[in-house]
Design a protein that fits this description.
Helix content is 30%, strand content 30%. It is α+β, with helices and mostly antiparallel strands and 236 residues long. The longest helix has 24 residues.
Length: 236
């Protein structure tokens, strides 16, 4: 495999760092870093479920909000004060449904968990970093609730993680930074469980169609990386 400009091999993750309890007020919080991409992610828990859920529904809910802070990108981006963009809506929904998929909502009880992902520095892969940070922050919150007697057990079914994979210059590359993402002929964002079950497999040909064999390789390289990220959770 060829080496990239930053010295990584095609199947190599960027350096990943998770700083737990990064803020004081949220029940769970982390600063997660994928190379130069840095996201502050918090998990807040409120009693009560969303109003649209039926009264006799015993489940809770997990939702998410995502934002790029103005100076997180190369050119300052505008704050989304009154109307959020289609991209932001898409990412928020992706984070929310990814994290709901790994939680037993009945064991959570009639509570609402809100994940807030604020990108303070963007260099590609912000949605994947937000999902990983969201899982870590949520797990911290749940463990504190168990310790304080608010939950009988942690409602997480199994860990999940997310990673980007792309085809750049005809080669499959893992965990794309911004420059690679801009040049990708195929772009994938993949969310999977520890047991290698697929939650999301978003793969788009940006230039030309690609082969099924390449799709299989994208899955395999993502699966291996996601297992590595899940191991990082337990080391932090």
């Amino acid at each position: 495999m060829s080496e990239r400009l930053n010295g990584r091999k095609n199947n190599e993750l960027r350096s990943i760092k998770i700083t737990k309890d990064y803020t004081n007020n949220a029940l769970g919080s982390v600063l997660i870093e994928f190379g130069n991409t840095k996201v502050i992610v918090t998990a807040s828990v409120e009693e009560g479920k969303p109003k649209w859920m039926e009264k006799n529904d015993p489940r809770g809910w997990v939702t998410a909000e995502y934002s790029l802070l103005p100076a997180s990108t190369h050119l300052r981006c505008q704050r989304e004060r009154t109307k959020i963009s289609g991209r932001t809506q898409e990412i928020q929904r992706l984070i929310g449904r990814s994290l709901r998929s790994c939680v037993n909502l009945e064991k959570l009880g009639e509570r609402t968990v809100t994940i807030d992902a604020d990108v303070i520095q963007a260099d590609g892969g912000t949605r994947c970093a937000s999902i990983c940070g969201g899982f870590a922050a949520m797990n911290i919150a749940f463990e504190k609730m168990v310790k304080n007697g608010l939950l009988e057990e942690n409602p997480i079914i199994e860990p999940i993680a997310a990673i980007s994979v792309g085809i750049v210059d005809g080669e499959i590359k893992l965990d794309l930074d911004y420059n690679e993402d801009c040049a990708a002929q195929v772009d994938s964002n993949i969310v999977m469980t520890k047991s290698s079950k697929i939650i999301e497999f978003q793969t788009t040909a940006e230039v030309a169609p690609f082969e099924k064999a390449q799709l299989d390789e994208i899955y395999n390289i993502a699966d291996k990386a996601i297992q590595e990220i899940i191991q990082i959770y337990s080391k932090n």
